[in-house]
Amino acid sequence: MFLKFLQLELKSFVRSPQFAAGILMKIGMLFMYAYLALIFVGGAFGVYFGAKKVGYEPIQLFSRIFLVYIAIDLLLKYFMQQLPAENIKPFLTLKISKNQVAGYTLVKILVSFFSWAFLLFAIPFAALLIFKGNLNLVAVLLYFAACISMVFINTFVNTIINKSDKLMYSLFGLMVIIGGLHYFEVIDVLAISECVFYGLYQNIGFFIIPIVVLLVLAIYTLSFIKKNLYLDRGLEMKKAAGKTENIAFLNKYGTLGTFINNDIRLIKRSKAARSALIGGVLFLFYGLLFFSKGYNTSFMQVFLGIFVTGGFNFMFGQRVPAWDSSYYPLMMTQNVPYKDFLKAKWALFVIAISVSMILAVGYAFISWEFYFTIFAAGLYNLGVNSYLTLLAGAYNKKPIDLNSASKGFTSGQNNFNIKILVLLLPQMVLPMAVFGAMKYFFGMTPAVMSLGILGLIGFLLRDKIFNLIVKIYRTEKYSTIAAFKKGN
Amino acid sequence: MINIHNISKIYGTAKVLNIQELTIPKGETFGLVGNNGAGKTTLFSLLLDLIEPSSGSIQIDGIQVNKSENWKNKVSAFIDDSFLIGYLTPEEYFYFLGELRGQNKASVDEFLKQFEDLFNGEILNARKYIRDLSKGNQKKVGIVGALIGNPEIIVLDEPFANLDPSTQIKLKNLIKVLSQNAEVTFLISSHDLAHTTEVCNRIVAINKGVVVKDISTNSETLKELEEYFASQVSL
Are both B142 and B164 inside the same structural domain? Predict the structure, then answer.
């Protein structure tokens, strides 16, 4: 039976839209996975060789950060790992025992990227410890067996509590409190982590504890999945009560207001859109990279600025028509000229960029110059990039399933389209070059003004630019409708 | 008036639709019947400019649908669930459509009163998003949504499918009443020969993309259609 499941999985993988994509996209995806893998492997080398520099033994340093890693791992899993419900339903009425279905589900979850990504770090790190550090082979292996168990415990914990919002929020609340206590130096989380895990290494007999917990949890999770193999329990999405909402003051703005009202409801009520919004908000913190090497030229700081003010654009705007993919035919047959439809989307970008520009004032505490750079980048985003993002959307034909959270985060990356890459040039390289040159030759104020002027020009030309964008959308309309249909 | 002129649609090597000339005058209640794959949805999609014709054109009141957008204020359609916005409540959906068609909240509320029986208390004030309604209720939302704003042309693709028996009868009566208005043109496709014959004053049957019957509905029409489709079976 398991072999049959495996065959189905293989077919699903080979026939998935990502796999069937053009060669460029496959290369792009390979690059992405390779990049992620490299981060983990590189991390292993980084921790091992960097440990001495900060005054710790490698395994000690690792133990210090492991608790934090586990916490972040659980967080990520909450957002991105879900019970593969749609795949399970067809099996329920066939001659397959519930045990087998539950077992298959569990294996499916375990085999996901999140589970074995840690191994990419653990194996090279362990190898370094054993062969270069000359540590006891058995001790190291048992230690990592315990650590890997912790990661899988996370997987199981997430599977069990993912549906229960209350449990999840209390857990996160706990994490926030602990984080706060650490920040205010009431407790030292790293020291606790070191105590627990390094202590584990030093008293290796204790390795058995996580493994036992893991086995117990595994059995419990299996029976949990089995208990929830009902259409009115684990296999159906929670149906929140529907509230009829309306932001009244937007009604003054006619069609524009109507569409913005709708998009706000879209973001509030769809998992995928919410993930994108959270991603966009996280970009506000991207500017903190200011502190790392490589970002101390004004050239690179513009890069940061564009992302800080344009994070929402990047996560949400790039896929603008795609958010409406499940009802695109409705939008296309309504009495709304294409131009007004696109203008309403553009208005959303403008609002998001402006809000980001205001919120970014926090960076002024680091340096006024840095904030002005961010502000200038924001002006450029407003006047130029907002159109380019909209334009890129015309070529984005991947439909979005609004009810699936993980797709909201990752599906943006699966869009390596040559046209989108080309549009990146004026979106990022151009303002960086202009700003850098102006600052070098003329100083800060002219540099900020130059980006501002470019933005203003873009804003003044908006009618002409919109006509151009509408023309392109019209040309792509039929293929877009057809592509969106496939996804549903 | 809808003019379909030399329309064809080719996918790969298959010609799924081929209609030389078809005119639908204003006020007609036009029924389109045919087996699966006959081309009904294709024809409606071409009419709404959702797909491109391989040849020919469709004109609504002289406006060619793939050249101008001005026909959109005359036409209202419900084809499939891609015409529903899942994350809205039915009220929000109705108000949304109303706003786009120049109807304020009050007039939409007034308009919805006549559907109280049809909705059976499960749709308005039900505190559910459209995506959480049953398929039949979703259909009701879609069909009523298409009627908001007094459109001149209403296109419904298989409206009777998936509706329970009582609702089918209610819908039939509803369409009969609305189609008495000579200003309103209905285009309905259906698998249900009985319902279509009762409701439509003209029925066109297509098979493999080609018009095989064009009848002005009379008492013999149902029998005629049934005999035609029965003959298709023994082939």
Answer: no
Which chain A residues touch B132 with a CB distance below 8 Å?
A: 239, 242
When divided into structural domains, chain B yields a total of 2
Answer with the one of B149, B176, B205 that is the final residue of a domain. Answer: B149
Alpha helices, H only, A240-295 = 254-269, 271-282
Is residue B121 in a domain? yes
Does B116 share its domain with B225?
A: no
- Residue B51 contacts residue A485 (beta carbons within 8 Å): no
Q: Which residue has the higher pLDDT, A399 or B89?
A: B89
pTM, rounded to two decimals: 0.77
Interface predicted TM-score (ipTM): 0.86
Q: Are residues B10 and B39 in the same domain?
A: yes
If one compares A314 and B103, the residue with the highest pLDDT of the two is: B103
In a domain, B222, yes or no: yes
Query: Which residues of chain B make contact with A251, given a CB cutoff of 8 A?
Result: 99
> What six digits make up the tokens of A45?
């080398």
Strand partners, B157: B189
Same domain, B136 and B164: no
B49/A332 touch (CB, cutoff 8 Å), yes or no = yes
Domain that holds residue B95: 84-149
Q: How far apart are the first and last CA of chain B?
A: 37
Select the highest-mean-pLDDT range: A94-108, A220-234, A299-313, B179-193.
Answer: B179-193
Contact (CB, 8 A) for B158 and B191: yes
Same domain, B31 and B128: no
Q: How far apart are CA B202 and CA B64, in angstroms?
A: 24
- Do B196 and B212 lie in one domain? The reply is yes
Distance, C-alpha A111 to centroid of its chain: 20
Structure tokens at A244: 């009829």
Residue B79 lies in a domain: no
For chain A, the C-alpha Rg in angstroms (whole number) is 25
Residue with tokens 């204020």: B73
Q: How far apart are CA A389 and CA A316, in angstroms?
A: 10
B201 is a domain residue: yes
Question: Are B156 and B229 in a shared domain?
Answer: yes
CA torsion sign for A115, A116, A117, A122 is positive
Residues paired with residue B214 on neighbouring β-strands, in sequence order: B204
Residues B163 and B66 in one domain: yes
Q: How far is B52 from chain A (nearest CA, A)?
A: 7
Across the range A120-136, mean pLDDT stands at: 81
User: Is B46 in contact with B6 (CB distance < 8 Å)?
Assistant: no
Report, in angstroms and rounded to the nearest whole number, the Rg of chain B calculated over CA atoms: 18
* Helical pair A189-202 and A137-161, crossing angle rounded to 10 deg: 130
Q: At A237, is the pLDDT very low, low, confident or very high (cuts 50, 70, 90)?
A: low
**Interface subset of A 304-333, CB within 8 angstroms of B:** 326-330, 332-333
